[in-house]
Amino acid sequence: MTLTCPACRHSRTTPFLELGDVPVFCNVQWDSRARAQAAATGPLALSACVDCGHVFNRAFDAARLAYAPGYENSQHASSVFRSYAERLVDRLIELYGIRDRSVVDIGCGRGDLLALMCERGGNRGYGFDPSYAGSTVAASDTPFTIQREFFGADHAAKIRPSLVSCRHVLEHVEDPIDFLRTLRTAIEACGDAVLYLEVPSGEELLESHGLWDYLYEHVSYFTASSLRAVLNAAGFEVLAMRRDFGGQFLCADARVAPRALSAAEHCGRSEPAVRAAAQAMLGRLDRWKQWAAELPHGQTVSLWGAGSKGVMFLNLLGLAAPRRIDRVVDQNPDKHGRFVSGTGQQIVAPEALRGSGIAQVVLMNGIYESEVRGRLQDLGVDTRLTVAWP
Ligand SMILES: [Zn+2]
Predict the structure, then answer these.
(1) What is the rounded distance in angstroms from the CA atom of residue 135 to the CA atom of residue 158?
(2) What is the Å distance from ligand 1's center to 6 Cα?
(3) 268 alpha carbon to ligand 1 midpoint, in Å?
(4) Of 338, 320, 306, 329, whose CA–CA distance to 383 is shortest?
């Protein structure tokens, strides 16, 4: 049990939300329902820091997680996400003059962001990702390479990147300050690269009662203040900090500071405010349990989105397949035919809804609503669309 805040290292933390045992991997899909339903679980016991507002799973145990190939969380199949990524890449290229340079992406997956950096800025890309399962040999038409390793000072000295990006990694790391210190040592070895960090916004979850976004893979849910605290403690200075992607992502541009800076200003919420947010989330969970209990017998319902929100929704509601919800639609072809951790729904392509007589589709992320409505229309699927977020 961790009682000290992993971001500002103060001990004024308060437990506020217990969500029980959940699958330890939301972003691993399984090759059979039996294996999916036997997937390992771990407890989600959330505490909030009264000083910096950081939220973390105090029951997190890294030993339960070993990032194995099969980890798939690419969102680039969605046009909404792709246009977000293009805007992000264009901003970094413009603002920091990243053209005809070397760029590094840590936790790069199959290299979607690197591809954009190379395509739109004529850059050379180097990806690092120990969980990457695909080929590490660059195809003749891909201007980037991927190494199944952690990025270190040796790599930095050879590559000399002008930009190091690290998207949706820090929230998985048990000791974010230690992780960033290692990164600082590497970046220092090569000059003055800009660091771009992106994490899910912990503030957004408290404000919009984003219950489905607390997951075992994430130790940490950063606020602007707690992200600044870890960056400063590790010896980075923040150049810019903002929220994007409908407020769901917290983004920071930073660079190496001459020395470690002091922790951030106080921005924690009071204990009653955090508890009120937790009450609202539990109320929301009860309403969805009621919705599931009242589904007419024999009605076919599908979920849209096999990302972590969808997996947590199914598991927190205890909707084990094949009853109630028998499958989950996702646009990522790498997930098709595989099964969701815990509840065991099969993941299918949107085309599978054609002619299925589906009565209701539950969409996990409202930011995709118009895209999904258009997709259903194109497929000729006449169904009710319900948004589980916000
Ligand atoms: Zn804190």
Answers:
(1) 22
(2) 7
(3) 8
(4) 329
Residue 202 contacts residue 46 (beta carbons within 8 Å) = no
For 278, the token pair is 């937790």
Contact assessment for residue 128 and residue 110, using Cβ atoms and an 8 Å cutoff: no
Query: Is 380 exposed, middle or buried, given 0-12, 13-18 or 19+ CB atoms closer than 10 A?
Result: exposed
H/E/C letters for each residue in 149-176? CCCCHHHHHHHCCCEEEEECCHHHCCCH
> What is d(CA 60, CA 219) in angstroms, rounded to the nearest whole number?
6
CA distance 376 to 8: 46
According to the model, what pLDDT value does residue 69 have?
Answer: 46
pLDDT-flagged residues of the chain (< 50): 69
- C-alpha to C-alpha distance for 146 and 325, rounded to whole angstroms: 38
Distance 42 CA to ligand 1 centre (A): 23
Q: What does the alpha-carbon distance between residue 140 and residue 272 come to, in Å, rounded to a whole number?
A: 57
Ligand 1 center–CA 357 separation, angstroms: 50
Neighbours of 176 (CB within 10 A): 28
Domain ranges of the chain: 79-256, 296-387
| pLDDT per residue as tens digits for the range 289-328 | 999 999 888 778 999 999 999 999 999 999 998 888 889 9
pTM of the model: 0.88
Does domain 296-387 fall under CATH 3.40.50.720? My reply is yes
To the question of domain 79-256 being in CATH 3.40.50.150, the answer is yes
Number of residues that this document lists for the chain: 390
> For the chain, how long is the longest CA-to-CA vector?
65
- Asked if omega into 390 is within 30° of 0 (cis), the reply is yes
Q: Which residues surround ligand 1, an ion (CB under 5 A)?
A: 5, 7-8, 49, 51-52, 54
Residue 200 has a pLDDT of 96
Strand order in the sheet with 124-128: 144-147, 124-128, 102-106, 163-167, 194-200, 249-256, 236-244
CA of 215 to the centre of ligand 1 (A): 20
